[in-house]
Amino acid sequence: MSEMKTYDIITVPDPVLRQTAQPVSRVDDAVRKQMDRMLQTMYDAPGIGLAANQVNLLNRVLVMDLSKRTEGSPAAPIFMANPEIIWESEEISVLEEGCLSIPGQAADVERPAIVRVKYLGYDGKEAELSAEGLLSHCVQHEIDHLNGVLFVDYLSRLKRSMILKRAEKIKKQQVL
Ligand code: NI
């Protein structure tokens, strides 16, 4: 197998994380190549979700794969372009979230428990996904990225600034 190129993941306080990504006009070979590279980048990190902003690209593309949380289970990548939440439950779910762009940090985040998402798949065709549990948190977290929103935005100002400060400190230590 040939070695696939990967992207560098940007971290806070990079301003690209605060920008809004633009829709793709269609899923063509260039977008598919980006999806493949993003998936490999996410696997290498390792993480379970990655949005275009996090690799310094500003189109509405994300990848996810929750299978790596279970040892030995086969890869189950999900690729989305132009994802849109078309329904969300009133019921709320609270789960601990982390983010590859906020190294070493995690916090409980409150979100709608179930969402229905419309998107363009790897084949460019329109598809829908109903998500609950971790997948629901993950897809909402990644769509947030495309809108310049980070999980810390759901926390109190004090908690947010503490987490961001700690993440930047960790990043500096990694660079040194
Ligand atoms: Ni994230």
Topology:
Elements: H1 29-44, E1 49-51, E2 61-64, E3 78-88, E4 92-98, E5 106-112, E6 114-120, E7 126-132, H2 133-146, H3 157-175
Antiparallel strand pairs: 1-2, 2-3, 3-6, 4-5, 6-7
This protein binds nickel (II) ion (NI).
Describe the model.
The chain has 176 residues and is α+β, with helices and mostly antiparallel strands. The chain has a single domain, classed as Peptide deformylase (Peptide Deformylase, Alpha-Beta Complex). The protein contains 3 helices and 7 strands, in the order H-E-E-E-E-E-E-E-H-H. The strands form 2 sheets. A 5-stranded antiparallel beta sheet has the order 1-2-3-6-7. Strands 4-5 form a two-stranded antiparallel ribbon. The chain starts with 28 loop residues before the first helix and ends with a helix. The mean pLDDT is 95. The site of nickel (II) ion has 5 residues, from helix 2. Nickel (II) ion binds at residues 99-101, 141, 145.
Number of helices: 3
Query: What sequence of helices (H) and strands (E) makes up the elements?
Result: HEEEEEEEHH
The N- to C-terminal Cα distance equals 33 Å
Low-confidence stretches: none
Radius of gyration: 16 Å
**CATH-defined topology:** Peptide Deformylase
How many domains, as an integer?
Answer: 1
* Strand line-up of the largest beta sheet: 1-2-3-6-7
Corresponding CATH architecture: Alpha-Beta Complex
Q: Name the average pLDDT.
A: 95
